[in-house]
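Here comes my example:
=====
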Amino acid sequence: MQNVLLLPYYTTPHGTVPFPLIQTADYEPALREAMRQEDEEIAAIVNCLEAPTFENTVVALAEAGGLLNRVTTVMFNLMSAETNDELDAVAEKMMPELSEHGNNITLNERLFDRIRTVYRQKSQLELSTEEAQLLENTYDSFRRHGAELDDAGKEVFRRLTTELSSLTLRFSQNHLKETNRYELHITDEERLRGLPASALEAAHLTAREKGKEGWVFTLHAPSYIPFLKYCECRELREEIYRAYNTQCCHGDEYDNRDIVKRLVNLRRQLAALLGFEDYADYVLRKRMAENTPNVYRLLDQLLDAYTPAARQEVEEVTRLARAEEGAEFELMPWDFSFYAEKLKQQKYRLNEEELRPYFELERVKQGVFGLATRLYGITFRENADIPVYHPDVKAYEVLEADGSYLAVLYTDFHPRAGKRSGAWMTSYQEQYIDRQGTNHRPQVSVTMNFTKPTADKPALLTFSEVKTFLHEFGHALHGIFANTRFQSMSGTNVYWDFVELPSQMMENFAVEKDFLHTFARHYQTDEPLPDILVQRIVDASNFNVAYFCLRQVSFGLLDMAWYTRRTDFEGDVRAYEQAAWQRAQVLPALPDTCMSVQFGHIMSGGYAAGYYSYKWAEVLDADAFAVFQAHGLFDPEVARSFRENILSKGGTEPPMTLYRRFRGQEPTIDALLKRNGILQA
């Protein structure tokens, strides 16, 4: 049979990936052939008899490796969304070879000589803004990947990066397997008092899928979060909380503690090899924040501004708990969500379960799509002829206001064994314009783990899940509207502390009445979400906002503590973690729990020395949304400006340049403080 991954093009609608035709056995030969082809492309650049130019060296390099990019994109995306042991084994086998292949390019002296020659002529070259940025990025990337090291240094670089690639994969695999193997099986319904019907129905469905009686709860968010929020049995809350927060540190084959140590040390050694003070110094040179002091300045500002309010919030929850349980009751982490939810209902008469019937998934989807139509004029048309990788997935054509084709959007909403936890956006093809002028449009995916439908109910979302949908859809718009010449700067290929701006900006609409009224209707009666509930959503939008801010700050502090180290770490991961984030903690610390061993963002994802980005971008999004509020939520001119100056530009210019062009000024923290009620308007 023909290996479809090696076809020169796909005959599917819009050249989309023919998922059903791909066999796991196809990946290894496809990867090897793709690496061979890229080697030939690199050799053609290096052996070119003409003097190095921007076109024959920098652009040629940007266009090389197309097949390898296509194959690895499919494989690694599916390893997050629909993996299995066989695919994991292929990846584990091929990761060292892929790492070595990449190193052979960035450590190729003759190739770097040509790039350096072009770079030294940049002031004489008549380059566009985007071309100049590509040249800068290419030269800097080679330097940051060891091109200027001596032979001995290059060998060390190869060893470090190869081991890093293998360990990040093992970290992720361990966490997924640890998540999937846990289940809380309950047969006595009395122990589940307080849990809403939606949670019980989902748990019963999970039990039936596993061939068991009763109810099964897992560590996936749609199961775990409502359990902590509503289950009256404190013993069970503690059990599932400890299970979640002690993942990957049980001293067995899925224990990630030694992997954390090794990842942190490898990154520190890599930074030192390249002449940086620490790994954060290495990372932040290519971020809006620029350096470690600026990151800590933001985190410290947030700590100073939010800690008093966070302590008040926790004290208020504690008072309620003690009023119910007795004056000696000690509020523990597995109690906080439970009593906070009770307090929220008391203060605002708002129960997320009361909202669920108004947030039926299909209607939420149409509401989110409709928001994009209202802002940008684009529309979404489902196309069942576009192949998908799982029956849960749907594919849509995204059309411009004039009906012309803009992009493909895949949606994948529900948890399953082969999908990692969380929510994310990714691309199966990124936008770029080839030398013939053809604009290759993007193929974007939003992947989440939302509450599943049951036998007699459609998927009904929580308000938090609605916000998550808006967040990932914001990322999707960043990819959908991309309009750059070079793929490496297209869409979300921007600085990590800028990439969250479009996503977090979209979350602001979740508490806007004019948006909610467009789609929130009861799935049975078709009655619109009552104004009184809309107002309660708005009123409760800042409930415990300071507590959740400190939670994010604590993650940022932990991240920076790991990556500002200047010596190798051989200590106790748990103890180090608790010391690192102690000043942002407002609940009792538990000695046996550990976040670092499951913190994929900073260990196996792209956020090492970059988790602060969420709060950095929140400052940006509050400041940016103020423009929409000032001119009208759906003002077409503001939306056009945001699309043209932010969403379509990708990484073609420095992010602050793009932001100032949209906003007219640099951002301040004031808009965020006002939105959260910390600073009075």
Q: What stands out?
A: The chain has 27 helices and nine strands. Residues 292-325 form the longest helix (34 residues). The chain has a mean pLDDT of 96.
